[in-house]
Amino acid sequence: AGVDIGGTKAIAVLAEGRQIAARYRIVTTTPDETLRALSAQLLRWNGAGELASLGIASFGPLRLDRDAADFGHILATPKRGWAGAPVADALTTGLDCPWQIDTDVNAAALAEYRWGAGDGCSSVCYITVGTGVGGGIAIDGRAVHGALHPEIGHLRLRRVPGDPFVGVCAFHGDCIEGLVSGPALAARLGDDPAAVQADDPRWGLVASDLAELVCAILLTTSAQRVLIGGGVCEGKPFLLPLVRGAAVERLGGYLPFFDHASAADIVRAPALGSDAGPLGAIALAHLAREAIA
Q: β-pairing, 54-58 with 99-103?
């Protein structure tokens, strides 16, 4: 089984291999209410047939150090009420199976690496642009961890000169999350982003900000694929070509593998679409099972 907890919705899935057999979807509300409902569904599935393993993919930041007292807890987050939420404890109680927890974006990167647009690559970066902006990195089938985990959405990058938008991130103002997340776009555009037409010049500023992010990822990780998903980009398909073109121009030919001919292959939409998150949780479940095999 897998659980994918996002800022606005949470999904539990039951799978055979990578094929999802059942789904349970709820709105993300308070930690107590949300985690209790997800746990109850996992226990129902386990009662019907013992679960082989569990993968938990959650928005972050998360404590992923197994030796830490708050392992599996959410750390400081803009999501009201969720700081300190004991995600792993709440979802594994009552289950006797191996499990793994990681960020939702690291998990999605793993799913794309195994079954999606990362096929044939050794390094994949997955970016989601939605309620927040997150980024996960998978290298040789393992998610990148260190002192914490990648927090790509909070990079502060070069802005278009004269862009007056100050950003909405409660921590950093005009980090990339503060500039292009769903709430940021609503503030930046003064309207529901879905209602703003493709020819509005302000989308050029958004594409520029995302292009700076792509450049930073390529320069620091040398990822073979940079996959940009999430509700914002899925709803505005014209953005991705703008991002590619701007990224090629910004890099000025410095990276020999990245030009107008190769950009569409390197910077693309996730192949798994909206299932990248749930299948990311299933990828973690596979890793948990493989670890004890």
A: parallel
CA distance 249 to 77: 34
Please say whether the beta carbons of 269 and 3 come within 8 A. no
115's tokens: 């079954």
C-alpha neighbours within 13 Å on the C-beta side of residue 172: 14
- Cα–Cα distance measured from residue 114 to residue 211, given in angstroms and rounded to the nearest whole number: 26
Query: Token match 């789904």: residue?
Result: 23
Cβ neighbours, 10 Å, residue 265 = 13
Query: Which pLDDT score, from 0 to 100, does residue 131 have?
Result: 84
- Segment 239-252, tens digit of pLDDT: 999 999 999 999 99
283 close to 110: Cβ distance less than 8 angstroms: yes
Beta strands 2-5 and 99-103 are unpaired
Please state the pTM of the whole predicted model.
Answer: 0.93
Residue 123 has φ and ψ, to the nearest 5°, of: -140, 130
DSSP state of 181: S
Q: Are 241 and 198 in contact (CB under 8 A)?
A: no
**E strand or H helix at 210, and its extent?**
helix 202-221
* pLDDT number for residue 231: 84
